[in-house]
């Protein structure tokens, strides 16, 4: 059922609570699809980066080959935040008068730990991957960080567009304002004192243009990501969970959040289900699982569900992953 879904899509997101098996199930799905001959890129958006642990090797922010037809990469939010802030700082310095450089630095340092900064950086990277990798790969598999975080990320493209739109509008206002100042008796020094321009022949125009191009590129990228996420023919979100009370309730909630942001959940994967017939205690525990899963089936009756059994050993390394991938069918 999961593989059927994966065959039909070109972008899959795996989300869910911490430790439920997102990395394992997404990697197994990616591997199974690669074995069928599709070119697959597996991307970890989790700052904790446990893709490398699973494959027993270093995986960095650039795609590396993990198996035939399968590449993997780990997005690095820290590096992304630094690059992003350097870019903003550069633009601000060019715009502001030189004596305000200290203020720019202060603003940038405060922004580094601002809420949402890492999420925005990750979202920008996801947008980049979707834009660039779509040509080289048939399937992109995103292994995401635990659920609250993921839903916020997925809902972010709209916030990001609103943000870039706001910036663009502000730039346009500033441009009009500086044009008015420039025209006032042709006294350039007034506008330049505020916006940090010089007396050269309108260097402001080329700066303005650069910033506008940058903001427009970002807006287009987020717009494209929004379109890709909302395209149910192309993209699906898979929720991985354990058969326990809170994960079931959170799954119902996450499904609602994703639905509201226009992203379709294609499958529920109940991982680490206890095997049947293993003595009284485990049988009772399994019955308890059935009760929680009945709640799930009541709340989300139309969503296809697949249960994966708890296996005796942790899933580590390519061989173990191959064995695990065989249980996905
Ligand atoms: N069906 C299973 N049976 C036994 N162990 C499993 C199963 N699925 C996953 N595991 C093990 O559970 C642990 C957590 O799995 P995994 O890293 O895939 O979870 P995760 O949801 O990605 O966690 P995180 O939220 O920390 O990223 C790993 O040690 C993995 O090998
Ligand atoms: Mg993980």
Brief summary of the model shown:
The protein is an alpha/beta fold.
Give the total of domains.
1
Main sheet characteristics? 8 strands, mixed
Estimate percent helicity.
55-70%
Kindly name the structural category: alpha/beta
Distance between the termini: 6 Å
Which small-molecule species are bound to the chains here? Answer: adenosine-5'-triphosphate, magnesium ion
Report the radius of gyration as a whole number of Å: 24 Å
Shape: elongated
Q: Element order, helices and strands?
A: HEHEHEEHHHEHHHEHEHEH
CATH class descriptor: Alpha Beta
The CATH architecture comes to 3-Layer(aba) Sandwich
Per-chain topology:
Blueprint: H1 2-8, E1 11-15, H2 22-35, E2 40-44, H3 51-55, E3 64-67, E4 70-74, H4 77-95, H5 101-112, H6 117-133, E5 139-143, H7 147-183, H8 188-195, H9 203-230, E6 235-241, H10 245-260, E7 265-273, H11 280-299, E8 305-309, H12 318-326
Parallel strand pairs: 1-5, 1-6, 2-4, 2-5, 6-7, 7-8
Antiparallel strand pairs: 3-4
Helix pairs in contact: 1-2, 2-12, 4-5, 4-6, 6-7, 6-9, 7-8, 7-9, 7-10, 10-11
The protein binds adenosine-5'-triphosphate (ATP) and magnesium ion.
If you had to describe this structure to a student in words, what would you say it looks like?
The protein contains twelve helices and eight strands. The protein has one domain: 3-Layer(aba) Sandwich (Rossmann fold). The chain is an alpha/beta fold and 329 residues long. α6 packs across α7 (147-183) and α7 (147-183) packs antiparallel against α8. Helices cover 58% and strands 14% of the residues. The N and C termini lie close together (6 Å). The longest helix has 37 residues, at 147-183. The protein has an eight-stranded mixed β-sheet, with helices on both faces. β3 (64-67) and β4 (70-74) form a beta hairpin. The structure holds adenosine-5'-triphosphate and magnesium ion. Magnesium ion is lined by residues 22-23, 46, 50, 143.
């Amino acid at each position: 059922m999961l593989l059927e879904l994966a065959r039909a899509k070109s972008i899959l997101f795996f989300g869910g609570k911490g430790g439920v098996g997102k990395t394992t199930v997404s990697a197994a799905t990616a591997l199974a699809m690669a074995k069928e001959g599709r070119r697959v890129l597996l991307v970890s958006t989790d700052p904790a980066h446990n893709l490398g642990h699973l494959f027993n090797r270093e995986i960095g922010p650039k795609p590396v080959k993990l198996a035939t037809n399968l590449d993997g990469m780990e997005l690095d939010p820290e590096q992304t935040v630094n690059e992003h802030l350097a870019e903003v700082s550069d633009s601000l310095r060019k715009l502001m008068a030189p004596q305000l450089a200290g203020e720019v630095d202060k603003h940038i340092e405060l922004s580094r730990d601002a809420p949402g900064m890492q999420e925005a950086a990750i979202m920008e990277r996801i947008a980049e991957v979707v834009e660039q990798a779509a040509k080289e790969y048939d399937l992109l598999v995103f292994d995401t960080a635990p659920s609250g975080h993921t839903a916020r990320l997925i809902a972010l493209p709209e916030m990001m567009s609103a943000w870039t739109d706001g910036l663009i509008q502000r730039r346009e206002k500033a441009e009009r304002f500086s044009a008015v100042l420039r025209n006032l008796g042709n006294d350039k020094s007034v506008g330049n004192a505020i916006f940090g321009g010089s007396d050269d022949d309108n260097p402001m125009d080329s700066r303005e243009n650069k910033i506008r191009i940058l903001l427009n590129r970002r807006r287009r990228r987020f717009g494209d990501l929004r379109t890709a996420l909302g395209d149910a023919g192309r993209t699906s979100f898979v929720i991985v969970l354990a058969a326990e009370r809170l994960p079931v309730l959170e799954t119902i909630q996450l499904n609602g959040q994703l639905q509201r942001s226009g992203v379709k959940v294609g499958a529920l994967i109940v991982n680490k289900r206890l095997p049947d017939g293993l003595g009284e205690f485990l049988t009772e525990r399994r019955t308890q699982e059935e009760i929680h899963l009945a709640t799930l089936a009541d709340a989300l009756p139309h969503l296809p569900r697949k249960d994966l059994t708890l296996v005796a050993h942790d899933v580590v390394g390519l061989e173990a992953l191959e064995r695990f991938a065989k249980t996905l069918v």
